[in-house]
Amino acid sequence: MAIFLLVLLTVVSVLSLGTGASGTRFWPVPGQVLRGEEIAARDAIILFDIRLPRLALGILVGAALAVSGAVMQGLFRNPLADPGLVGVGAGAGLGAIGAIVLGTMLPLALRGALGYYLVPVAAFIGGWLTTILLYRMSTHRGRTSVAVMLLGGIAIAALAGALSGILIYMANDAELRDLTFWGLGSLAGATWDKVALGGALIVLALGATPFLARALNGLALGEGPAAHLGVPVQKMKNAAILTVAAATGAAVAVSGGIGFIGIVVPHLLRLMIGPDHRWLLPNAALLGASLLILADMIARSVVAPAELPIGIVTATLGGPFFLWILMRNRSLLDL
Amino acid sequence: MLIASDIHVSLAGNSVLEGAGFRAEAGLVTAIVGPNGSGKTTLLRAMTQDLPYQGRITLDGNDLTAIPGWRLATRRGVLPQASRIAFPFTVLEIVRLGLSAAAVPAPESRASDALARVGLAGFEGRFYQELSGGEQQRAQLARVLCQVWDPVGPDGPRWLFLDEPVASLDIGHQLEVMDIMADYAARGGGVVAVMHDLNLTAIYAASVAMLAEGRVMAQGTPEEVLTDVTLSRAYGCALRVNAAPDPPATFLLPHMARRAG
Predict the structure, then answer these.
(1) Are B116 and B142 in contact (CB under 8 A)?
(2) What is the CATH number of the domain that holds A47?
(3) ipTM field
């Protein structure tokens, strides 16, 4: 499965590099590079400074969204938990907006130290606090209530949205431009700076997940039984919450809110390879990256030379899929 | 030796256990019995640290709270009452989770051995969620057996804590599971089980603790504890205990139960 997904990722990556409004083709380029020939300056800029960072960002964000979905579902023991759905994305968004609007009020030393990382770090903190709040709310004596999780997530998302609205209202023109650009939920405007920005947190978070996989398997039995298997449940939950917050926060910071990857990818994979997190998490990274790049290609192609926000594409495909999962899992909801 | 002394547990402000004392020895099956709401499961869950308690619980002289979780996992398997699994795991994947607790890597074949032991050979590839309640319970028992496979380990005897292990089983499988418990104890392991069926308890348990209203009313051999007086007081109804001649056993027949008073 992993090999198939690697091939899939490679294929969509190459396709994505070759797709775009400018008509620049990808295929001649590797040959030209190998033969030591000069690449047309325009093509080089389009490929290396526009499409390649966009591709890298897509891979990072897609992997981050899919894996944080899978980890969150494991943590909440429920296939419907998704950072985007239950307010973690909104919390991360509030953090990012807060950083953009209020960032200038921070002491210069702190701003200098965080530099470019101010927005992703704020998004991470926002996502982290929301995840903790949500988990505290919905888990009582080791049992997580799906109803409280979903409804609480709606309330948290609404609250975060309202606070974000206030901040946007307070923003000046320059900040507003930043916000609009960011809020589109899109991979457009990807630069190597952005890749480095989000990439650091995402790679860190994804790197932690292999250590969580076994514990998440144990947790599928419930918190008590997991503890009896020797899983350090409390530590593991904290680590999982941090991981989800870092991956979601970074993804939201660099690409806005892109929905449904986190719920669609793990669910499809569980149908194909089973729910064992040791295989689920790495495969989710690959499939998430592939799907997001594919969605980005669709977003860039259907109304070319303009482009759709990628969030519209993922929601159009993911919305019905989510309804389908919901119908299949009706018995789990116990509302 | 497992000793629990002066255990107090409150749930949602209600005092459930009020100074319960309990002991169990490795090599014996020890049953916890009593009416609904008497605190049987609560006592078991305190001893498996699923509930916060006041009092002292020691395993071979060491306070439970002083033993790290990973070490306890190599010495103690816990079977909860019916449990739901979050994702579509297969039976084999669930049972294999028991192997993950081992300090020394256990052979993969043990999972299949454990399934065969509980009468679920051939169920490896089935989805756990699609099993019947009784089959799920036996699959969970297989997982627990996998975890503490050898009744005696390098650190001493290992323990099974079972919450109503035969509650949703037919009589054939009830006996099969009781035999597994008896065999585990006979080979040196400790077995503590919450039981509802007093007749099975009388046949299989070497020690019985009778709970009523948050206290252990009596603990001893089935002959000492399962008496007309104790049972009638605990369950609040008149009960007559009989003795079967061959094989010799204490037994209760339901039609002899009449409301007290």
Answers:
(1) no
(2) 1.10.3470.10
(3) 0.90
